[in-house]
């Protein structure tokens, strides 16, 4: 919180406080533009709100669901960093940012790809293997932009896939924390850690 306040103060001091006023009006205008052109862009938004609106859900309900998801994701992401910064926590943050945002677009997906690569890197470093459902989630995430643009699925896949990926990352963090021999693997000193086997860490 202090860092955010310092950044706001520094930007306002050096760039002018009117910048923040213009930013607020720009956000309000973006919301209006999205509502105006909704039918043309919802399929390009991997968010719960957009997916629900595509299915005919009323605006108030879709917004309420998005808000609840954002709160859950925000609290969960904060908890992943309570014991320090680590690669899987950053992966959760990247995915959670897209999941929590009501106006994320398909061009925000590269950050999700980085999260997928971080998950794969951690498994390779830990010499642990993936379960079949995890492989399916990761593979579907990588082809998600195509699924969104082509509309080949009967229901919008964006929010479901990204929520599944977020849960996958958080579950892995919980598993690593519960295995004493692996705790230092996500918080540092990996070369002094005796790696656990696939049987110990995989579902």
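^ Assign residues to that structure.
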């Amino acid at each position: 919180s202090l860092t955010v306040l310092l950044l706001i103060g520094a930007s306002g001091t050096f760039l002018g406080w009117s910048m923040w006023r213009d930013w607020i009006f720009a956000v309000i205008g973006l919301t209006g533009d999205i509502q105006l052109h909704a039918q043309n862009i919802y399929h390009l938004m991997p968010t719960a709100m957009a997916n629900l609106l595509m299915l005919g859900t009323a605006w108030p309900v879709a917004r309420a669901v998005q808000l609840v998801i954002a709160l859950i994701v925000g609290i969960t992401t904060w908890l992943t960093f309570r014991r320090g910064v680590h690669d899987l926590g950053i992966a959760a943050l990247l995915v959670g940012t897209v999941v929590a945002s009501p106006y994320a677009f398909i061009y925000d997906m590269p950050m999700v790809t980085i999260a997928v690569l971080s998950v794969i890197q951690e498994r390779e470093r830990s010499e642990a293997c993936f379960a079949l459902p995890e492989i399916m989630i990761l593979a579907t995430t990588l082809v998600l932009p195509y699924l969104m643009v082509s509309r080949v699925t009967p229901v919008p896949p964006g929010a479901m896939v990204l929520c599944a990926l977020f849960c996958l990352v958080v579950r892995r963090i919980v598993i690593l924390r519960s295995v004493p021999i692996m705790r230092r693997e996500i918080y540092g000193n990996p070369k002094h850690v005796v790696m656990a086997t696939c049987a110990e860490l995989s579902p």
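The longest helix spans residues 59-80.
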